[in-house]
Each structure stands twice: as structure tokens, then as C-alpha cells.
Amino acid sequence: MAVTNIIRRTASQVVPFVVRVVGRTQNYHHQSSALFSTVVNRSATSRNFFRNSTPSTFHCYSTKRASSDESLLKVIQAEILCAEESDEQDEAEEVPEGFPFRIEDNPGQQTVRLTRGYQGESIDVEVHMPDLVTGDEDENDNDADGSERANQSQIPLVVRVSKNNGPSLEFGLTAFADEIAIDTLAIKDANVAEDQIAYEGPDFSDLDENLQKAFHKYLEIRGIKPSTTNFLHEYMINKDGKEYVMWLKNLKKFIEA
């Protein structure tokens, strides 16, 4: 009997203890599971936040580049419109009656070629873009001899006069308003090797004055005279404007591509 009472008393004390231990263990696992879930959720949230809050460098760069290109295109388009309006105001120069040369003008090139035949000779003229003077230059910058050429617009020309397939005369000219200056004169022989240095003669300005006048007359007879160069001056100004518009449009195409 005593033994039975002892066993019952012991069991009554042990069972609650076991229940408390099991309960604590379950609570611990439950709390641990909840804590782990919280940590995992926070980690995922942090990753998502980092992923969402980090800017795309490529996207940002692309946006800035596109914005910059759009601004550039607007400026180019405005300049094209302005240049085209200026070209419309400048009427194209008509070729004067009796103009002795055939004009070869290829778009995209900065020179114009003139050709003609004269008494068995072939005359070829290379006309370059004009060097324009706006009139803002200092009037005291004239040459010592009182020449006003420094303050005048001008166009450079190269004139070649050849006979058959033999040597040719090559003149370097500068055309001013109603005046043509011969800068250089040389004899060119196509049969002379490139590695041979030919004697090119003295500076044209050092030649005898009568000889200089004679060469001016020589060119005038062949069509190189002020009436011709004055027309070419206006023609090249118009060409310069057209080439500028074409250049701007090519720039625009490149930026848009």
C-alpha cells in the first residue's frame, strides 16, 4: 500500500514536469520557426529593395545620350532652315551670254571646273571657294603700296593652258572685283618624272613689267578676264551656300542613324 502511494505521488509530480518540458520545447520550435521565417522574409525584402532601388546605369546613359542627340538635332534643323531661307533670298546667278567656258559643278566638291578649246589649245580652269571679306577688317591693314586687296573678297583660280599632249602653262591667280592678279607661272611637263625637280622660273612679280602685262593679255584673250571672274565670284558664293546646306543635312542623317 505504501509502495503504491509512493508510485502515484511520484507519477503526479513527473507527468506535469514532462508536460511542461514538452510544451516549452514546442514553443521553442514554434518561436524559432517564426524567427527564421521573419529573417528569411526580411532578407528577401532586402534583396527586392536592393534590386528595385538600384538604378540601371545603361538605361540612364541611354536616356542622357538620346536627350543630347535630340537637342543637337534641333539646333542642326534650325540652322538648315536658316541657311535655306538665305539661299532663297540669294537668286542664282545666271550664266552671262557669251560665257566662253563649260561649267562642271559636282555637288559635294568645293571646286568648280571650267573647260574650253581655243585655237588648238585646251584651257582648264579650277575655281576654288571664295575668301569673303565682310568689311569689318581694319582699313589700315592695306599693303604698304596703298593696295586695298587685303580688304577685298577674292577667289583663287588655277588656269592650265596645254597644247596636244605636250607641256602646259599653269597660272596661279587671285581674282578680285574687276581685277585679276597673277601670283605664279610655271611650265608643267607631263613627261618629266616626279622625282625630278624642274626649274619653275622667278616669282611672277619679279618679271619685267611689260612681260607681266603681256601675260595678262594672254589670259584675257583666252577668256580669263574680270567679267568672267566677277561672275565666278557670285557663282561660288551661291555654291558655298548650297554646299553648306548639304553638309548640315549629312550631319543630321548621321546623328539620326
UniProtKB/TrEMBL annotation:
One of its GO terms (cellular component) is mitochondrial matrix. It comes from the Eukaryota. Residues 131-154 are annotated as: Disordered. Pfam families: MAM33 (PF02330). Gene3D superfamilies: Mitochondrial glycoprotein. Transmembrane segments: none annotated. Residues 134-145 have a biased composition (Acidic residues). PANTHER family: COMPLEMENT COMPONENT 1, MITOCHONDRIAL GLYCOPROTEIN FAMILY PROTEIN. This is Mitochondrial glycoprotein.
